[in-house]
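lol ok so funny story. i was supposed to be doing the assay writeup but got distracted and ended up predicting the structure for this chain instead. priorities right. anyway since i did it might as well share w the group, maybe its usefull for someone
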Amino acid sequence: MKQESLYRRLGGYDALAAVTDDFIGRLATDKQVGHFFGGHSKDSLGRIRQLIVDQLCAATGGPCIYIGRSMKVAHEGLNITESDWEVSVNHLVATLDKFKVPQKEKDEVLAAISSMKADIVAPAPMKKQ
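and the output, tada:
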């Protein structure tokens, strides 16, 4: 018997959109990472939201097609640190917990997100000797 897609087990498009809205709300108001969302117009923030929903939809086996830039290009120059990443992941976990996502599905979402980490987090600066 074929297992249902992660997309379906998470509740489909509307559930992913609700998770995205909560997650972005947490990020945008966070003291450490909120500045990454500052200076965007309402339209620009709406586009970012839609791209995240589409990417989550595609990454979880849903019918969406992600047409945004690669994670490397989209995050280049933002200088996202390891600490920023951890804060963001903690917010994602809190969001998934809020929506009562079961542990198995939560682990799968986190694995999918973690696979993008190298393209999102800026390399640590070289220490001078």
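Residues 6-120 form a domain with the Globin-like fold (CATH 1.10.490.10). Residues 42-59 form the longest helix (18 residues).
back to the writeup now i swear
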